[in-house]
Design goal:
- This is Dihydrolipoamide acetyltransferase component of pyruvate dehydrogenase complex.
- The chain has three domains: 88 residues, RNA polymerase II/Efflux pump adaptor protein, barrel-sandwich hybrid domain (OB fold (Dihydrolipoamide Acetyltransferase, E2P)), CATH 2.40.50; 74 residues, Irregular (Dihydrolipoamide Transferase); 222 residues, Chloramphenicol Acetyltransferase.
- It is built from nine helices and 21 strands.
- The longest helix is centred in the middle third of the chain and has 18 residues.
- The radius of gyration is 29 Å and the shape is globular.
- The strands form six sheets. Strands 11, 14, 17, 18, 19, 20 and 21 form a seven-stranded mixed sheet that branches. The chain has a four-stranded antiparallel sheet with strand order 1-8-6-3, with no helix packed on it.
Length: 453
Amino acid sequence: MYSFKFADIGEGIHEGKVGEILVKEGDTVKDGTNIIVVETDKVTTEIASPVNGTISKILIKVGDTIHVGQELFLIDTGSGSATSPSPAEVPVEKKEEPKEEVGASVVGEVKVSNNVLPSFESQQVEMFSSKEESSTYHNADVLASPVARLLALEHNVDLSTIKGTGPSGRILKDDILSLISNKDSSSSQPVQTTVTQQVVTAPVANSQVVTANVSQTSIATREDKAIETTPMRKAIAKAMKESWSNVAYTNLAVEIDVTELWDQRNKFKDLILEQEGIKLTLLPFIVKAISKALVKYPTFNSHVDEANGQIIQKGAVNIGIAIDTKDGLIVPNIKNADRLSVLDIAKEITLLAEKARTKKIQMSDLAGGTFSISNYGSLGASFGVPVIKHPEIAIAGIGTLENKAKRVGLHFVERKVMYLTVAADHRWVDGGDIARFVGLVKQYLENFTLLFI
């Protein structure tokens, strides 16, 4: 009988929360089969069985808080007596290389603006959509008092169907109240009412009156609902507050023309997908450019030592990639990015995205970051001011790729541009420092052959 315990996963984590139990008593498992999802304040991860056997006893339930060393399962391995793993027996995660970046919207490729170029995202993000048509749009150009507009909004009244009694036909509060009163008195159904309102739309022959039937459906009242905060969400909230409380924010943005880089990427992307199974996007090139610039400007590759009032320049260049998962934002990092090729960086991004999607991110993936990148462009945003991952000094934000007309000589030509924002801690770097840093990144991307020197 094997005693499966919650192991120490590092980074000072002593407890976690049972998010999901993936097996039931009597199930047969193999070495490497995921059997539990554990949520900590840093990561949500699946933990696998290190042995072959049958789940004999489940000692926890979903929602339980568990501590390092606590017994979670008994697994019948056929050996009889209960055993626990020695440190040497703890399995090392097998590294899998998925075929393309999926399931992580922020780590995805730089999105192309839908109104100018076809999107090459792995998934489309629909924002600010609604399945029900609102009367708000129809109310925009109607002459009405602010109070009348508010009442119309609250009662879902289309102002374009009402003849106002105020000056120049202005709709007043009493016009709305009268309509609501008539609607309530004539209604026999609690959910839907039909109000017939006479509306003179324009002077017509024989003083003809046009009658319009306006259907009004009441809006169902939603009840307040308490949402339980996950350990990861609490950790994110704490980190964001710590950043805004400690960092003196300043930021600069530059426009970067990536037309030549885009064209060069297009020449090789299909071949790389066929030979390497990797979807080559612009993000690996951007990571490479930033990592080279960090070597030239090491202050941006530093951590703040608040206790001693100094900064620690980091020897390694480990670029964190913000990944937006359904459980919250996590920032694993690419180790020694300055020493990797663009293709190797693409492979690392793909691997981290897949691990985030499948909840296989390890603490080693999260530890050691020196500079972070937020790719909000993958969600269609052009500009943004990302939040620094304190104690790091700075962070870069990548906007969506757009077509823009630019003057070249006597003519205007279509170019592909994006915006790069760098936010930094003004206590340690000045605006001139940021300008020189982002200027070098811009130079690398606009003259992409410099990336390979």
